[in-house]
Design a protein that fits this description.
The complex is a heterodimer.
Chain A: E1 4-10, H1 14-25, E2 30-34, H2 60-73, E3 77-80, E4 83-87, E5 93-97, E6 101-109, E7 113-115, E8 131-132, H3 135-138, E9 146-150, H4 154-163, E10 169-173, H5 185-192, E11 197-200, E12 203-209, E13 216-221, E14 227-231, E15 234-237, E16 241-243, E17 273-275, H6 287-316, E18 322-327, H7 332-347, E19 353-358, H8 363-368, E20 378-383, E21 386-391, H9 395-406
Parallel strand pairs in A: 1-2, 1-6, 2-3, 6-17, 8-15, 9-10, 9-15, 10-11, 18-19
Antiparallel strand pairs in A: 4-5, 5-6, 7-16, 12-13, 13-14, 18-20, 20-21
Helix pairs in contact in A: 1-2, 1-6
Chain B: E1 2-4, H1 9-14, E2 19-25, H2 30-45, E3 51-56, H3 61-66, E4 74-79, E5 82-88, H4 94-104
Parallel strand pairs in B: 1-3, 2-3
Antiparallel strand pairs in B: 2-4, 4-5
Classes of the chains: A alpha/beta, B alpha/beta.
């Protein structure tokens, strides 16, 4: 029998690492599956100065290594493998990697996002030949050379600053009017003071040119329509990211941009599957929000695993028919009606067992059986793991049920 | 695996007999550091078939550019002083490297 993890975390970026730490600390059997080194995109960010408590001088690789060590210290396991397919609807859920198969009671999907490509001529061919999506990786190869940065978001401006420590000049190609960037104002103000940075406004890149190495780009001014050749050695592209969801194969709901839709507990459209970090549809994609997602997802997943185990034992796999009464503990009149069921089962314990569910707290059950918490209490009869019927909470109706059961 | 630099690249790689595989890496390249133990493993496994060298691009930048290396990691195969094949980019896996080695291992 293969071992089943309580919590399988897909992806070892900040979201996955935080989830791993929370999960393992809550004594769940937790594993993080990651194909490479832990850290995700943050590990390719050299200067990382906005994680609370870790200011100037913090580097992405160091911070994420500390996160990984933290998760390991509480007992999270690392599995180095590349995931090839997922069966998220089965129970337990199945993750197929190149090296093996892994089973988990709950899944946290935290595979993040990857750099968006411009999709222009020359980009693919010259990748690694002057075209780069990672300043940390490649910056020092461009010492004494001239580079352009495409984009004007936080990543573009911050990576341009980093590149300026190596390259002779860094020209930032911005699609907007002069003085307007997508980055935060603090980064922009600082970048404007950097004498090595040049700004090319109202422009897009039409193509990247060169045989063996990048030699130039073709620029187009979107105001005038004018095209020009701009000689350059390197092209660093930071125009946002695309979520990595190709493995999902339609199993969970995505927004129109392809990001995973979750509720505020990181639950996806599929029971027991949670999402965290950049892959999720959210307002702010930062290391701190990825870690936050991971923590929430792990706590929600733990609750899910616990509730599932209890529900399976007491209801799904119960020997006798089970009367399940859903209630709201703050509703006095409702809880009195629960007493009717309570007394009925006590008098007829040889035929029935009773499970009381606080539907305002038990998300698994409320969600699975679509219990409206504004319409409580509610009573279900379960047999062989399935809802047999919904019953009104009424002594006469319960007696009728008893008669039909005892006549069998 | 032979650590090669700008001074001995010509002797060790371009003037060498048979096929030479060069692993171009840099200390800031996370993916290179990840691949390194795998590359070393492959180097000892196929040591009789192919010559294995590595170049730390930091400190050998001009050499890297002369060999058209402007992105890491880059694994380049040479024969008779000529580049005969290469794989590069963040996505390369140890299996991809081994497949290429097998292709050139006599």
């Amino acid at each position: 029998m293969e071992q089943v993890y309580d919590l399988l975390i897909l992806g070892g970026g900040p979201a996955g690492l935080a989830a791993g730490m929370y999960g393992a600390r809550a004594r769940m059997k937790t594993a993080i599956i990651e194909k490479g080194k832990p850290g995700g995109q943050a590990a390719t960010t050299e200067e990382l100065e906005n994680y609370p408590g870790f200011g100037r001088g913090t580097t992405g690789p160091r911070l994420t290594q500390a996160m990984a060590d933290h998760a390991i210290s509480f007992g999270a396991e690392f599995i180095k493998d590349t995931i090839v397919s997922l069966d998220l609807k089965s129970s337990p859920k199945r993750v197929v990697g190149k090296k093996g198969e892994y089973l988990g009671k709950a899944i946290i999907y935290a595979l993040g996002a990857q750099p968006r490509m411009l999709n222009i001529p020359g980009e693919g061919k010259l990748r690694g030949k002057g075209v780069s999506y990672c300043a940390t990786c490649d910056a020092d190869l461009f010492e004494e050379l001239d580079v352009v940065v495409v984009g004007s978001g936080d990543a573009a401006i911050e990576e341009a600053e980093y590149l300026s420590k190596f390259a002779e000049s860094v020209s930032i190609i911005v699609i907007h009017d002069e003085g307007k960037v997508d980055a935060n104002q603090v980064s922009f103000e600082r970048a404007k003071q950097n004498p090595k940075l040049k700004w090319i406004w109202n422009s897009i890149v039409k193509s990247i040119n060169g045989d063996e190495l990048v030699e130039s780009i073709t620029l187009k001014n979107i105001k005038t329509g004018e095209e020009s050749i701009y000689p350059i050695n390197g092209v660093f592209i930071f125009i946002g990211t695309v979520p990595i969801t190709n493995l999902l194969d339609g199993q969970i709901e995505l927004n129109p941009q392809g990001y995973i839709i979750t509720d505020n507990k990181m639950a996806t459209s599929l029971e027991g599957v949670f999402a965290a970090g950049d892959v999720r549809d959210k307002y702010l994609r930062q290391v701190v929000t990825a870690a936050s997602d991971g923590a929430i997802a792990a706590v929600a997943a733990e609750k899910y695993v616990h509730e599932t185990e209890l529900w399976d034992k007491e209801v799904i796999n119960a020997a006798k028919p089970v009367l399940v009464v859903y209630y709201n503990p703050t509703d006095m009149a409702g809880t009195e009606k629960v007493g009717i069921v309570d007394r009925f089962v006590r008098d007829n314990y040889e035929h029935f067992s009773l499970v009381k569910v606080d539907a305002t707290r038990n998300e698994l059950v409320s969600r699975r059986y679509q219990i409206d918490i504004n319409d409580l209490p509610k009573l279900h009869l379960f047999e062989n793991g399935e809802v047999k019927q919904e019953l009104p909470i009424d002594e006469n109706k319960l007696m009728a049920l008893l008669n039909s059961v005892s006549r069998r | 695996m032979i650590e090669v630099n700008k001074d001995n690249f010509e002797d060790e790689v371009l003037n060498a007999q048979g096929v030479v595989m060069v692993d171009w890496w840099g200390p800031k390249c996370e993916r290179c550091m990840e691949l390194m133990p795998h590359v070393e493993e492959l180097a000892s496994k196929y040591r009789d078939k192919i010559k294995f060298c590595s170049v730390n691009t930091s400190g050998n930048r001009r050499l890297a550019i002369s060999q058209k290396v402007l992105g890491l990691p880059a694994i380049i195969f040479y024969q008779n002083g000529q580049k005969i094949d290469e794989i590069s980019g963040q996505e390369i896996e140890p299996e991809d490297i081994e497949a290429k080695i097998k292709q050139y291992a006599q």
